[in-house]
Each structure stands twice: as C-alpha cells, then as structure tokens.
Amino acid sequence: MANKALARIRKGYGKKLVTIHAWNAWLVLFLAVSGLMLLGAFWREWLGEGRVWLKWGHILAGLALLVPVAYYLLLAAKHWKRLNGKPGQKANVITVLALLLGWIVSGVVLWLFKVFGPRAANAALLAHDLFTWIGLPIIIYHSITRTRWLQEPNRRSIVPEPGIKDGDTTERIEKESHYPQPLYTRRSFLKAAVGAGLAVTLGPTFVRWMGRSLQLPASEVPAAANANHLLPDPVPLPQSSPPIGGGAEGHFRVYTVTDIPSFDNSNWSFTVDGLVDNKLNWNWEQFVNLPREVQVSDFHCITGWSVYKNTWEGIPLAKLLDMASVQNGAASVKFYSGDGVYTDSLTLEQARMDDILVAVMHDGKPITNELGGPVRLIVPQMYAYKSVKWLNRIELIEGDHVGYWEQRGYDTDAWLPGKKKI
C-alpha cells in the first residue's frame, strides 16, 4: 500500500516540482518581507498592534514551508536519479534543502523560545539571521530560475523516461541542441543583474551584522553617539569602571515604538507619585547625587537575542519605593517612558525584588539615548519589554495596568524560563 501511494505521488513529478518551486518562492518572499518588517524600527512603530499579527503570519508561513519541503522529499529519490552525472545541480539541491531546514529549525526554536530558554533562542536567532543573509539571495535566485527552467525542456533535467511518449519534446531537444548558443544570453544577463543587485543591497548589511554578532574587531560598528545632553555626567563607582562583569557580551538590537527621544537639563525630571505619602521629584543634578549600587545581570529580549554580563549602576527600585512611603491601597507600580507613549507595570510584590534597578550607567558609562538613557528600568528576571526605556515617572496605582505590548498580545508576566514567579 505504501509503495502504491508513493508511486501515485511521484507520478507526473515534473509538473509537481514546478508547483513546489512556485509555492516555495511565494512563501520565501513573504517570509523575507515580513521578517524585514518585524526587524525594522520604522515598521515596528508603524505597525503597532499589527506587528503581533504579522509575527504570527511569519510563524505560520514558516511552518507552511514544511509542506513543499516534505513533498519534495517524497519526490527526491526519483529526482536524484535524474541528476546523475550533474554534481553541480546535486550540490544546488543540497544547499537549498539545508537552507530551508535551517530556517525552519531555528525558526521553531525562536517560536518556542520559552521552552528552549534564552541561550538556545540566542543561538537560534544567530543561525536564523545567518541563513537569511546568506540564504535569501540564493533561495530567491534558485526559486525564480528553476521555475523558469522547468518550463523549458532544453534546460531541465526532467525529460521523458525511455519508452514514454511526450509529444515532440525529445525531437525539440535534439533540434535545439544543434543551435549555436550565445556566450551571454539576455536571460543570463538578467540573472547576473539580479544576483548583483541582491549582493549590493544585502551585502553591506550582512557584513555589519556579522561583525556585531561575532564581535570581530575589524568589522565593529562605532557605538552610537549619545544625543542626551545632561550635565553633570554621573561619576561611576569603582565596581563600574572597569566593569566588574568584564564588559557586556553581545550587542543590543534597538527596538522602539516611537522616534528615539533625547533630553537635556531643561526637559528632564524624575517623579515618583500616585499612592504614596511622599511625592518625589528630582531634576538631573539632584538625581545623579542619589546613592547608587552596581549589579551584573543578563538582558534577554523576547525576540530571541540576549546580551550577557552587563554591569548596571543605578538605584534599587525598592529603595525608591521606601523613600516614597507606599500607601496601603497600592497594588501595582506603573512605569512611564519619556517618549510619552510607552508604559508598563509590575505588581508591588514583583517591584520589590532586590535585583530591579533604576539604572543610569552601563559598563561604567552613561546609558545612551539609543539604549534607553539617561535612565532606564532593568528587570533581570523578565524579558526586556518590562525594562522600560527613558524612564522618567513611577506611579503607584490601585489594581492592574496593561502595558503597551501587553495590549498587543504579550504576556502580562514576562518571566524568563526557570525564574521564580511572584
């Protein structure tokens, strides 16, 4: 029964290969476009809540990519026989299958990041990016050209088997093989142009990504300038300079739902208010004189990347709450970003965890506006959307507050795998 079913599947496999290539091309195109939109800051801002739907569309398309891959594997034995004596085409098939399977496996790990944990997700994201930058030009080029070639009998490996009639296909192949072929055809020129265009477009971005991801000194991108102009600069504690964590391992990917703001002494202040007995308000000169502490912690983004061994310096959130004297009716702590849009919250019990820091320095230097400075929240045991950037207000409130990304599908509690859930 299994052999008969497989024979029926393989019958007319040439046309089926054409269909597989077409579906593969469309799925890869959608995955490429949606992946770039999910990555780009502009699209993250513009899409808003739609980003969650686009992310799910990207995941479903990635899973759908399993269908043409699995279907091809059912046809692979017959196709492989046709490629005898054609090592170049065999290598091409192996390359494309390896890319597709690499994308799928790394994508599944990113999709189920809470199951696999941060380190596995970080490795999967690195692999997913690598497959994208290297594989995307290859896979698009392959899908487009092979779909055209499979429609041209003189180019394809799929020819009628001996004894099988196929109109005048064989006769036409024999005739066309005697025609003189130009050294560089119009189609060859177009293919070379497409390849060059992809290389020019994606190449520099890939080189920058490779340098950052592998931390290659010759390929490092200069750190972004700090557009904040706040004086005086905070003086680092001895544990921060040099950083006791040894310096952060990895690089931050900058995501934001608004334009990146910048601040100076005239437009920055910090407030703790709401259900407190002592409302607190500081300008920058006062805030940098508050006693600070140093901690080393890892930073995990819900999109799969991590930066390890960060040395943060700042004020423990619990100490700010004690200074404000929280009233009995308070249940949650609401955090406001200086961009005027982003908010998030923790329960009062969560907010009193001793490793939550209102940070002003990272690895002995002021936090740049690009990374959420001059002040950002650091919640090491949760994913980074809880670590509010450009933090300038803390409000004690009754009940719950649903934060910006929680309104858009993220979990209210952002615990990392294995962390104690309060």
Describe the protein's topology.
Blueprint: H1 2-10, H2 13-39, H3 41-47, H4 50-64, H5 66-82, H6 87-111, H7 113-116, H8 118-149, H9 169-177, H10 186-214, E1 269-274, E2 280-283, H11 284-287, E3 293-300, E4 306-316, H12 317-324, E5 332-337, E6 343-347, H13 348-351, E7 357-362, E8 365-366, E9 376-378, E10 391-397
Helix pairs in contact: 2-4, 2-5, 2-8, 6-8, 8-10
Structure write-up:
A hairpin with a 5-residue loop joins strand 1 and strand 2. By secondary structure, the protein is of the alpha+beta class. Helix 2 (13-39) packs antiparallel against helix 4 (50-64), helix 2 crosses helix 8 (118-149) and helix 8 packs antiparallel against helix 10 (186-214). The chain is built from 13 helices and 10 strands.
Strand order, largest beta sheet: 2-1-10-5-6
Number of strands: 10
Write down the overall mean pLDDT: 79
Oligomer: single chain
* Secondary structural class: alpha+beta
Low-confidence regions: 158-186, 215-222
Distance between the termini: 56 Å
Beta-strand percent range? 5-15%
Q: Tell me the overall shape.
A: elongated
Largest sheet: 5 strands, mixed
* Helix content class: 40-55%
Rg (CA only)? 28 Å
